[in-house]
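batch job 7 of whatever, protein = DUF4142 domain-containing protein
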Amino acid sequence: MTRMRYHRCLIAALWALTVACSAGAQVEAPPAPAKPRAANPAMFAPGGAVAVGDRRMTPQQRDEWRFLKEAAAASRFESDAARLALAKSTNPEVRNFAAALIKHNSAAGNELLHMLQMRGMAAPMLADAQRKMLNRMAKLQGTKFDREFVEAVALRHQQQDVSDFERASMATRDPQIKAWIDQTLPQMRYQLVTGEQLAPNRARVYKISAPLRAAGPG
């Protein structure tokens, strides 16, 4: 009897040990570290502009942001073209216009870059057409360069700038953008008038007036 009791106790102890081991194996393992979430493409607007959080912009805001990006690209194009003119042209009038263009874009561009940064937008790259135009002008020399610079930069580009800024001034509801446009427009109109004087045979878009002269050089 004693031996049988011993065997029963041993079997019971082994059974209890087996149950305990099984229960320990069923304890949940610690959760695996969460995988990082992939970046949401909607957080980044086209052209390098970064949207603020997941905020949805209204059509009005999209137009204003597009205007800022296009204005920044236009300013960069004009400055690059003007530097080419200073390096390649010997025409005093062309060189004076180029120097004034660089000065204006440097002053207006600082505020423009600040507005881009406030909205989480990176300075845009040049458009393909702008890069092609710069490459084309870089290959020209002498009077051929002067004619191309006057036609493309002093006339067409200035006319487009004035038109875009006047339209944006009437359309924008952003007081900061509105103030910057209205501060910049007088000098842009003066630059257009000055550019037209480099090509006297072209039809004039603007006539010089007293306010434009006052807003001119400087």
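notes: The chain has a mean pLDDT of 77.
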